[in-house]
Amino acid sequence: MAKKRRGSKSQAVRDYLKEHPTAANKEVVEGLAAKGVKVTGNLVATVKAKTAKRREVVKTVVSQHGLGIREIKAGLALLKVCGSVSAAKESLAAAEEITALV
Q1: What residue numbers bound the domain in which 70 lies?
Q2: Is the pTM of this model over 0.70?
């Protein structure tokens, strides 16, 4: 029997909540059980809490720095590609030089 990927149940809960944002924990458990994914109400509650925490952090950053969510997502994508903050700063410096020359 093949092993499931780590985090696949949490991802299934997140995907279900995207489709049904107002679903209660019990509804999520039942809906995923119908799809063949066994989750507990505690897992659903944990995923919901972490999602709410992430939203709160994003709202705080947006309000403090005056950036939009698009800019923050682009910055996070840059960090993911570069691998570190210092590498991202170097790439931004190079982009500024190129912009100045053009």
Answers
A1: 8-101
A2: no
